[in-house]
Design goal:
single chain, alpha/beta, Amidase signature (AS) enzymes, eleven-stranded mixed sheet
Length: about 475
């Protein structure tokens, strides 16, 4: 391995070197920074370059080890942080021009946990305005591009995170997810992620002027986007460390008890009347076969009504947004985001007033139905989107565009409303007329069993391979 190859290493491979002293934290971070400087001018995934600060922290880690300190589990691993989460001394702009000078007084819990584990933040990644699009563009930092090509959106709202980590800008990328914002970028870029369940990762922004709405609190989660499932198993135990600033955090170990028998998986291709693209169907079949070969018991059966649950949950969220956020969007948002929200409210008619209170109660019914179903089926393998990922700015194309981007994504936001964990993993590299494109599938898991979802993602990955490898061949040919 040459020094120029270090940026290619997974976090798992990298820590085997940094924790034994074969590679210094400074060397690992420097190579990631070099890669960032090489590819980010074209991608615009990283909105704030923290190279100077990162190298100082990496050197401090190395010096601490020399003095006898034990290296952390993520010693020297370069990571990125999304610009909607607090990092002390940096702007938590959320992609909004009016918030560009909101400087965080302290770190959010996930930043604290990553740095306590020895990870080094090399940059802050781009997000759409208010982190409320499945695409990534804003008037403050501009558009992020997908490393596979400009025929595909990078996803959102953690689009900078997904594009950056797949392009080699750090081994781990922080993101968050209220309706799919970890999984959309994973699907767009061919990355791997797991949306943690409710309460699994502590969350809070010290810069926020008021508490968020109850659905924003209970549907939104913090997590990581990676290039391999193994890196989730490596990093998530550090990310879920308790923090008293989140009073509803559930402190549990990453690994749950092993199952006594082979895991049963519910497999569904149901897309509720939306056309299932042949490439998505092939990806689902590949994922199913991979799980069968790995010893899972896969049965084709529909879980409880995802469509009803997902649409109800997102309509409730839109009711909360209409009540608590609309004035801010109107005052500080661009015309583009204001237009998109108007169409959101058409696609998902907001549930408000007494009906919203009733829907918050009904949420427990949906969650109970899934809990009972998952007593028999520990995992649910499903599409993530029924079609290959859409192009940039598709959600600006009025009702038709928003319907394609979010309307059909019920498997995504249903998991947020239910509070269940869900992994998203590539299962096929499709060769489409506009160019190659990864196709991801989703694996939902029992409550508190993110580890099971990641195990299944690893089994699929072992069949399909890591999408970063053909991507880097494509990028190298273009450089």
């Amino acid at each position: 391995m040459t020094k120029n190859d270090i940026w290619r290493l997974s976090a798992t491979a990298l820590t085997k070197l940094t924790r034994t002293g074969e590679l210094s934290a400074e060397q690992a971070v420097q190579r990631a920074i070099d890669r960032m400087h090489q590819v980010n001018p074209d991608l615009n995934a990283v909105a704030e370059d923290l190279s100077v600060e990162a190298l100082q922290k990496a050197r401090a880690l190395d010096q601490a080890v020399v003095r006898g300190a034990s290296p952390g589990p993520l010693h020297g691993v370069p990571v990125t942080i999304k610009i909607n989460v607090d990092q002390k001394g940096h702007a938590t702009s959320n992609g909004v021009v009016a918030l560009k000078d909101v400087i965080a007084p302290n770190d959010a819990p996930i930043v604290t946990n990553l740095q306590n584990a020895g990870a080094v933040v090399i940059g802050r990644t781009n997000t759409p305005e208010f982190s409320f699009r499945a695409d990534t563009d804003n008037d403050l930092h501009g558009r992020t591009h997908n490393p596979w090509g400009r025929h595909i959106s990078p996803g959102g709202s953690s689009g900078g995170a997904g594009a950056g980590v797949m392009a080699g800008i750090g081994a781990l990328a922080h993101g968050n997810d209220i309706g799919g914002s970890l999984r959309f970028p994973a699907a767009a870029n061919g990355a791997v992620t797991v949306k943690p369940g409710l309460g699994r990762v502590p969350a809070w922004n010290p810069s926020q002027p008021a508490e968020r709405g109850i659905l924003a609190q209970s549907m939104s989660v913090q997590g990581l986007i990676t290039r391999s499932a193994a890196d989730l198993h490596l990093s998530m135990p550090s990310v879920i460390a308790a923090d008293p600033r989140d009073p509803f955090h559930v402190s549990m170990p990453w690994r749950g008890a092993p199952c006594d028998t082979s895991l049963k998986v519910a497999f569904t291709k149901n897309t509720f009347g939306y056309a299932l693209h042949p490439e998505v169907e092939k990806a689902l079949d590949t994922a199913r076969d991979a799980l069968v070969d790995a010893g899972y018991l896969v049965t084709e059966i529909d879980p409880p009504d995802v469509f009803e649950c997902g649409r109800a949950g997102y309509r409730a969220l839109m009711g909360e947004v209409l009540t608590l956020m609309k004035d801010d969007i109107e005052a500080a948002g661009s015309q583009t985001i204001r237009n998109i929200f108007e169409v959101y409210f058409q696609e998902f008619p907001p549930i408000t007033d007494t009906d919203l209170i009733r829907m918050l109660a009904q949420r427990t019914h949906y969650a109970r139905e899934w809990s009972l179903f998952m007593e028999d089926y520990a995992l649910v393998l499903s599409p993530f989107l029924p079609q290959p990922f859409f192009g940039p700015d598709r959600d600006t194309d009025g009702a038709e565009g928003v319907h394609e981007v979010l309307g059909c994504a019920v498997y995504s936001y249903a998991m947020n409303f239910l509070g269940l964990p869900a992994a998203c993993v590539p299962a096929r590299l499709a060769q489409l007329p506009k160019g190659p494109q990864p196709i991801n599938v989703q694996i939902a898991a029992r409550r508190w069993r993110e580890d099971m979802a990641v195990d299944a993602a690893a089994a699929i990955e072992s069949r399909v391979g890591q999408m970063c490898l053909p991507l880097w061949d494509r990028m190298d040919a273009a450089l």
